[in-house]
Amino acid sequence: MTQPNAVHDQRVGVWFVGARGSVATTATLGALAMAAGLAPRTGLVSELPEVAVAGLPSLEGLVTGGHDILETPLAHRAQVLADSGVFPPSLVTTLADELAAADSRIRIAPRLGTQRENARAVEQDIRDFRAANDLDRVVVVDVSNTEPPVTPRPELDSLAALEEALDAGHAPLPTSSLYAYAAFRAGCPLVSFTPSPGATLGALTELAKEQALPWAGRDGKTGETLVKSALAPMFGTRALKVRSWASYNMLGGGDGQTLSDPRAALSKTTTKGAGLDAILGYHVDGPMHIDYVEDLGDWKTAWDNISFEGFLGTRMTMQFTWQGCDSALAAPLVIDLVRLAARAHERGENGVVGALAFFFKDPLGGIDHTLADQWRTLAQWCENLGASA
Description:
This is Myo-inositol-1-phosphate synthase. Belongs to the myo-inositol 1-phosphate synthase family. This protein has two domains: about 270 residues, NAD(P)-binding Rossmann-like Domain (Rossmann fold, 3-Layer(aba) Sandwich); about 100 residues, Dihydrodipicolinate Reductase, domain 2 (2-Layer Sandwich), CATH 3.30.360. The protein is built from 15 helices and eleven strands. Helix 1 crosses helix 3. The strands form two sheets. Strands 3-2-1-4-5-6-11 form a seven-stranded parallel β-sheet, with helices on both faces. It has a four-stranded mixed β-sheet with strand order 8-7-9-10. It is of the alpha/beta class. The relative contact order is 0.15. It is about 40% helix and about 20% strand.
């Protein structure tokens, strides 16, 4: 599909936090395959006319890199995913040279003495990536492991207090927030694709404003919550009373293993459950469970049971099962968000971009959780971006 008003000559860097993880690997290979004409652009919201009208950077201009704590070559990681059915094995073979080049742009995450030193090292790696690859801009994308919620602390509320704490050698920031800090210091937009704290801390939202940078988050809406945000409005607009909405999730892979830790799972269940009450306008009893099943690998299954009340108090139920490949659902959204964040940066957007709520479970900067309304907001924002070109 040809994009109207596309900025074809821009080179946009994608700096992944968790660059050898399943989502980043799938996004990297997918971008390479689509740019080479080896794969269709199915799943890319940014290719739909209502979004492409914004004048987005082309896929051909994307250059990936990033940090990880693992040294496993990207091609090996891609082969494991291909063997499990995430994408055709032939793509890994055909794009072997391109994957090797992408792998050469991945660095081991710095582990220095203090958070100040680590933040400076991350910032410098991002700046070096931008310079070495002659990039117009870099978008930092956090697809790393989910972190527990943050305990409120005074030094996280204001930028001045945070800077003082870092200068004193303290370590107040969770890893996701340290990367958000480094990204903003490097002059880069940020996409928080996980439910980790990231840039939500007061000090970092202040820094983004100070640096006049857009950012988006949080927790990509890829599966069960996507269905909820489309289905829940049906009950509301038909005046049906939802009594309970129970959700049971099974997933494997690194994300599932991380979420087997109850502290990390709390971040995920909080964002997954945030929208239902907001959509319906009243509290719904909604127990939610996430279990790690190693055998599922990169695949996930969600089973939902909805109890609702109709005319004359008649009790009824609805059930649905969602089965999907986590990385194949998430990767195109990551590419969409990179293109949109880059365009927002080019047009001078500042702070959290509420119009990108369509992509997230916990839509920061927006109050509407209804998928159709979020879509209309996104389409209008893209039209305005295109008109201002």
